[in-house]
Amino acid sequence: MASPEHRNFLSRENDVIISDISIISSTGFTSSLLGVVTSLVLYEDISKNFMTGKIMIADANDFMRTVPVEGKEVIRIRYRTPINDDVKEVKMRIHSQSERTPTQRSDVLIFRLVSTSAYKDLTTVLSRSYKGTHADIVESLVNDYYGKPLAYNLTQGEFTKAFTYNRPSKIINRLCRSSIPSESEASQEASGFLFYETASGFHFKCLTEMYRKGAITHYVNSKVGRVSIEQDNLGAFNSLQFSFDPTTVSWGVDTFSYNDSFLNKMGDKFAFPILSPDDGDNFTPSRVFLTNRVRESVDGQYEDIDTKKLSRQFAASNYSTRNNTSVNFSIQGNSLLEAGDVLQLLFTRNVPDSSLTDGEYDPNLTGRYLINQINNQFIFNEDGSQTHTAHLNCIRNFKGEASVSSSRLAVEQ
To answer: How far apart are CA 272 and CA 261, in angstroms?
Structure first.
């Protein structure tokens, strides 16, 4: 019979195998937290550079006096879902104590956690230059200062860039906004990268290409919300860009319309633009950008060497439309799921139950969604068992069906 740590089947709802949860002091002393920890939550978010979390400890036997917490300790957890073979190991640093509540049986303490890389980032300020593509520079920064695996998309152009008195994450965030993917079928229109951390490491990914990955699993029916007003203010559908080039003493103006966006150019059959081509928002600027333009002379001809001017309007649109449709739901924990993964979500049609047939889903809402946030919650029960629940926020920047144009509505009316 397989031992509890090696079994490959689910024995109960929200089943999880936690092989280790320990606290490690700054001197390397390690002590198990089993028996005193009651819950642990790990947060992943593609809009945040680093993982965060919180841990709750019920101290009934003066454990915290035996293992005093000074703010430099590391919490380590190793876990897996029984049906998955790979064990996830996450190390989080204690950031602060947020709460202490005395009860009849114990003192309940809650500590805020940040990833060990976040602490390294907060204590690092650098001034140096880098040469290469944006992806090369990000890879060097991650290797030099975080020491964790990096999954990334390749980027266009090679540059020499100097950075002064900045944290590594601030440098990478600047590169994200002006990065253009080199492997996309619509490179300039796909501008805009994200840099975020999950349990498996760091990711430097092109936002628009993330939606095009194959779904790893599927779920049925969730609550749906939409965002629109903020998108208009951020230049999602139309913007103007005034650029000035000090090297040639020239200036120019560029107009962006959502009709020129990544989705409109690609024409994917599974992803339709969120606005119809004749929608008024496509033609009304909602934001103005002022951009320095840098060029160099090559054989007497000036060529762009800075991607900021080329990418800024497209990146702004891609960032602000990414959560046009938002879905929140909770599922049984799965150690394979991470922020940035793609799920296939199925929604039944919004019609009376009597008129529904088996397998009949809403074609506009059903489809691929990107995991924007995932909160992994581990509960340690008094009987020694543990459970794992995942709370997800999933988003997408497209529709499952083409938007109805105003001209078509006029004809139908």
So the answer is: 11
Q: Are 88 and 79 in contact (CB under 8 A)?
A: yes
Sorted by sequence, the CB contacts under 8 Å of residue 398 that are 6+ apart come out as 211, 263, 268, 271, 272, 273, 274, 324
Question: Nearest 5 degrees, angle CA 405-CA 410-CA 413?
Answer: 125
| Helix, strand, coil share (%) of the chain residues, nearest 5 | 20, 40, 40
pLDDT digits (tens, 9 = 90+) for 243-297: 887 777 778 898 989 888 888 777 677 788 888 888 888 888 888 988 876 554 4
pLDDT grade for 13, boundaries at 50, 70 and 90: confident
Is 48 within 8 Å of 173 (Cβ atoms)? no
Q: For 139, how many CA atoms within 13 A lie in the half-sphere containing its CB?
A: 11
Question: Please, what sign has the CA dihedral across residues 104, 105, 109, 110?
Answer: negative
Asked whether the beta carbons of 327 and 395 are under 8 A apart, the reply is yes
- φ and ψ of 177, to 5 deg: -70, -20
**Cα–Cα distance measured from residue 17 to residue 29, given in angstroms and rounded to the nearest whole number:** 24
Around 254, how many Cα atoms within 13 Å sit in the side-chain half-sphere?
17
In this prediction the pTM is 0.88
Buried b (16+ CB within 10 A) or exposed e, 65-98: eebeeeeebbbbbebbbbeeeeebebebbbbeee
Averaged pLDDT for residues 135-156: 96
Closest CA to 76 of 38, 113, 27: 113
Which of 111, 110, 105 lies closest to 73, judged by CA?
111
Tell me which of 76 and 28 has the higher pLDDT.
Answer: 76
Per-residue burial over 257-269, b = 16 or more CB atoms within 10 Å of its CB, e = otherwise: bbbbbbbbebeee
**Using CB atoms within 10 A of its CB, is residue 153 exposed (0-12), middle (13-18) or buried (19+)?**
buried
Q: Hey, what are 86's tokens?
A: 């790979």
Question: Residue 300 forms beta bridges with which residues?
Answer: none
For the chain, give the mean pLDDT: 84
CB 152 within 8 A of CB 204: yes
